[in-house]
Amino acid sequence: MIDLNMTLVAQILNFLILVLLLWYFCYKPVKGMLQKRSDRIAESLNKADADVAEADKLLADYKAKLAEANKKAEEIRLRAEKEAAAYAEQRKQEADAKVAARLKEAEAQIASDRAKAVEQLKGEVVTLSLAAAGKILAKNIDKDDNAQLIDEFVAKLDKDKIGDLPC
């Protein structure tokens, strides 16, 4: 069966020494390397989590700044539209005022020209009337009667020919 001799004891003793040597020289360094690797991996994962958190924070800051910039841009656009509308209204009012002033000037010029034309026409009518009356009456009427006839004729002419329009 099992033969217990010194060779078996030497083999067991050699095996135990080999196990102790392997444990001391191989197992401890390999276990240390594995522990260091595990620590590095854990550190990398923590760093990655921190980087993700920082990236999320930066993204949130970026979105907030972008929203604020969009809001300011909208405010600037609205203010510019209001200023443009106010400027356009001001220019329109100025143009309307200029047109009204020119219209008044034109109406005044027309009224002045009409009054001059009426006066000139009255003068010509008086001249023609005097000439006609002088030929018809041929010195039968004195100067007072002549002036009265001319005034009546001009008054009638004003009402009939010119009408009730202001001069």
What does this structure look like?
The protein is mainly α and 167 residues long. The protein has one domain (8-162). Helices cover 91% and strands 0% of the residues. It contains 2 helices and no strands. α1 runs antiparallel to α2 (143-162). The chain is rod-shaped, with a radius of gyration of 61 Å. The N and C termini lie far apart (159 Å). The mean pLDDT is 85.
State the order of secondary-structure elements, H for helix, E for strand: HH
Averaged pLDDT, please?
A: 85
Radius of gyration over alpha carbons? 61 Å
Assign an overall shape.
rod-shaped
For the record, the count of structural domains works out to 1
Low-confidence segments, given as residue ranges, are none
Count of distinct strands: 0
Profile the largest sheet: none
Count the helices. How many? 2
Approximate strand percentage: under 5%
Task: Give a brief outline of the structure.
It contains two helices and no strands.
List keywords for this structure.
mainly alpha; single chain
Map the helices and strands:
Elements: H1 6-137, H2 143-162
Helix pairs in contact: 1-2
